[in-house]
Amino acid sequence: MLEKARKNAGKAAAKSAIAKANLRTAKAKARAVEFAEAEKLRKREEKVKRKEDLDKAINAFVKKWNKKRDREEAAKEAKRAKKYAVKLRALVDRSGGKDKKIAAAAAENAKAAARRATKARKIQE
Question: For burial by CB atoms within 10 Å, which of 25, 47, 58, 120 has the most?
Fold first, then answer.
C-alpha cells in the first residue's frame, strides 16, 4: 500500500512537472508573440514618421524655393519699372506742353511702382 502511494505520488509529481513546463513554454510563446507585435507596431510608426519627415523637408524646400523665385521676380519687376521711368523721364525732357505733363505724371507713377516693388522685395527677405 505504501509502495502504491509512493508510485502514485511520483506519477503526480511527474505530471505536475510536465504541466509546469508546458505553462512556462506557453508563457514564453505569449511573450514572444507580444514582443513581435510591439516590434511590428514600432516599425510601422517609424515608417510613418519617416514619411512625415520627408514631406516636411520637401515642403520646406518648396517654400524656400518659391520665396527665392518671388524675390527674383520682384527684383526683375523693379528693374523693369525703373527702366520704364527713365525712358518716360527722357521722353518728358524731349516733349513739350501738354504731353510733357502727361509724361511727367506717367514717369512719377512708374517711379513709385519701382519703389513699391523694391520695398516689397526687401520685406520678403
Answer: 120
What is the Rg, in whole angstroms, of the alpha carbon atoms belonging to the chain? 43
User: Per the structure block, which three cell numbers stand in for 95?
Assistant: 516733349
How many CB atoms within 10 Å of residue 114? Answer: 20
pTM: 0.49
Q: Residues 101-107: contacts with CB within 8 Å, 24+ apart? A: none
Name the 3-class secondary structure at 1.
Answer: coil
- Kindly state the cell numbers that stand for 121: 522685395
Residue type, 29: K
**Interior/surface letters 63-89, b for 16+ CB within 10 angstroms, e for the rest:** eeeeeeeeeeebeebbeebbebbeebb
